[in-house]
Design a protein that fits this description.
single chain; alpha/beta; Rossmann fold; five-stranded parallel sheet; two-stranded antiparallel sheet; 9 strands
Length: 370
Amino acid sequence: MNLTQFANVARHYLDARITVQLVSAPGLGKSETVEGLVEKYKQQDGFEWGLCTIMAAALTPPDVLGYLVPGKRSMVTSDGDTEEVAISEFTMPPWMMSSQGKPMNSYKRGIVFFDEWDKVDPDTKRALAQVILKGVAGNWFVHDGIGIMTAANRAEDRSGSTKEYDFIINRRAEVHILPDVNAWEDWAVRNNIDPLYTAFAKRNIDVVFSGKVPDKQGPYCTPRTLVMLSHLFSKMQDASGALPVGDERQLSMMTEMASGLIGAAAADHFLTWCRMKTEVPDFETIVKDPAGTEIPSKPDGKMLVAYDCAHRITPETADKVIDYALRLPPDFQVTFGAAAIKRNFRLLSHPAFLKKFTPKNAGLIALISQ
């Protein structure tokens, strides 16, 4: 299944107290999806969910139980008196503490998420077995409202995967996540990823969603590294969202920077794509003259302007932007409408959407409900 499909059924695993392991190629967004579940359930339930994210590959067996330290405890003697005796006790292990610094058991519901599970050394995997399967280790445990999830890459991804144990495999569920541009697009729009990168991923699926690691080790393009690139270049974009690809010195520097994240071939492909941003109308021009502003002639340009309008639309500019969007071909109208509403669902009740856009795009509601 893809990540959107998993997000729709994830609560069934949590409610059934079944540990689920997500398996996929690197960089598809497993970690972000699990983190997003906590916010989603918080909104649904009306109370805070806890999240503990552990980089499991960094754990050692002592981390699982906590560290043994001297302690004291009052004991009742045989004659009924009370005396204080020295004992050894384990400190609270890291998987018992949320990312907000609160004990996981202080939350009514929550998720303990072990990321990079496949890279955990065999001894630590055995030590973690009871935690993964029952939420228990030694005298520490999480209550029944706290679910367990893990994430792993495939053995063929050269990610340093270690031996798996059948006694663990047979006691958990395994969900294989498929590369899916539409599921990623849904996440990207809701998380305000710059439309330049969202449109690039949609038009270059073979570059971003190949699901394969390169033959030779080095940087390569995945949805994760593409998002990292969007953060790296964010301060270099102008007000319209364009990068300075016309400046040869800047272009050379950006090529080096991009190559270090997504690989040389993908970097060249992306920066060629970025030149198109200078060929499409900017948002301010569209708002100023929606009827007279040109529609890009190339499909890539139409895709980019649709995402750009969806990313920048506000209730104040909705009338003008929708007038322009309705001049796009039907497929790109739907791209614009779905992205705009996923980013800000309140736009769906805006008069411009209700009276002008939705009647001409009847399938839009069904699309954004998926």
